[in-house]
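stage 2 :: seqdesign
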């Protein structure tokens, strides 16, 4: 059966929130008449979350439950849900009732207008200021500058996107907050809309201030992947050529002095620098070559292409077009 929408929900110790969450989802989506599934990924919860989910799945045909063997983290849970998604659109949201499922139909509407991803912006965020909102404001500024994808709120889980866009994401570490950036580099059209945000009612937040640092580390990785992965030789090779060239010039200059004036060059600091630059230059070019090979392996191993196709149109004369035509005539 073709599904219109898959909701992907990472769940870690959210036993009290789950029944309300499912009720809210049905209240928001049933009136739209969409065919949808709710994929809850239990990320190794230590409370009764899985038991609650199993019980609800027995009565709710829309609910799909995946359960991790241990806690692999929110990003891994999202990736697992995306891998399992069958709907034409994928919506991501938190299990803790902080996101409002009632925003989803509006976001789907924006998707139908031609956007590939609609990201939520918690304009009126209901979290503590000092340890949650302040670091988040700083992190948003940094991410926005470094990734050059300008959004107000990267931390909001609530997002709706086309399934192809979702499945092209490869998420590791704490990377779920870079989803818009990664998608945008692949050419996705992204829109940010203000969404409702509510204070956490049950359970506790799974993150503290320590997350900020890990996000910064992942930012470096993401940034590296963005700029250098497809062309490491261009980056390292260029640096290597420039350093090597400058070093060679210095050594040549010293050699000329030695030959013409017979000056002693053994005690010249320039000699040391010149030799150093040549060695570093060679190293950089070699690093570029190795990185290039690694980049190729990475792309080939994942079947990744260096491009992303938005649409494909075929004329009626081509074979695929003819097959469709025949099927239409028979039907
Ligand atoms: N979560 C998860 N695995 C983890 C940590 C969190 O699946 O290791 C889920 C959690 O259940 C919630 C979502 O990720 O649905 C966001 O977590 P939380 O609400 O604690 O983050 P905050 O909203 O405070 O940033
Ligand atoms: Mg939360």
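stage 2 :: out
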């Amino acid at each position: 059966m073709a599904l219109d929408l898959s909701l992907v929900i990472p769940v870690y110790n959210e036993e009290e929130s789950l029944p309300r969450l499912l009720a809210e989802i049905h209240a928001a989506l049933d009136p739209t008449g969409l065919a949808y599934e709710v994929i809850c990924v239990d990320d190794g919860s230590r409370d009764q979350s899985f038991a609650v989910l199993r019980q609800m799945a027995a009565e709710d045909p829309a609910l799909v439950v995946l359960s991790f063997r241990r806690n692999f983290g929110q990003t891994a849970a999202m990736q697992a849900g995306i891998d399992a998604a069958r709907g034409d659109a994928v919506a991501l949201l938190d299990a803790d009732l902080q996101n409002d499922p009632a925003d989803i139909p509006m976001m789907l509407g924006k998707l139908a207008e031609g956007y590939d991803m609609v990201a939520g912006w918690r304009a009126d965020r209901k979290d503590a200021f000092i340890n949650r909102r302040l670091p988040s404001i700083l992190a948003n500024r940094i991410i926005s500058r470094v990734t050059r994808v300008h959004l107000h709120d990267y931390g909001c889980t609530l997002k709706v996107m086309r399934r192809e866009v979702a499945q092209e994401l490869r998420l590791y570490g704490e990377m779920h907050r870079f989803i818009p950036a990664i998608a945008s580099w692949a050419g996705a059209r992204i829109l940010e809309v203000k969404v409702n945000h509510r204070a956490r009612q049950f359970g506790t937040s799974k993150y503290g201030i320590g997350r900020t640092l890990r996000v910064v580390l992942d930012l470096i990785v993401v940034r590296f992947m963005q700029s250098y992965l497809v062309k490491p030789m261009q980056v390292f090779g260029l640096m290597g050529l420039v350093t090597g060239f400058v070093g060679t010039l210095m050594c040549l200059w010293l050699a000329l002095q030695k030959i013409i004036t017979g000056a002693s060059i053994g005690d010249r600091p320039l000699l040391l620098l010149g030799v150093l630059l040549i060695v570093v230059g060679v190293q950089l070019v070699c690093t570029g070559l190795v990185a290039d090979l690694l980049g190729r392996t990475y792309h080939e191993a994942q079947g990744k292409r260096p491009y992303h196709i938005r649409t494909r149109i075929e004329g009626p004369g081509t074979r695929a077009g003819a097959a469709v035509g025949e099927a239409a005539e028979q039907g």
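stage 3 :: structure notes
- Residues 233-301 form one domain.
- The chain has two domains: 3-228, 233-301.
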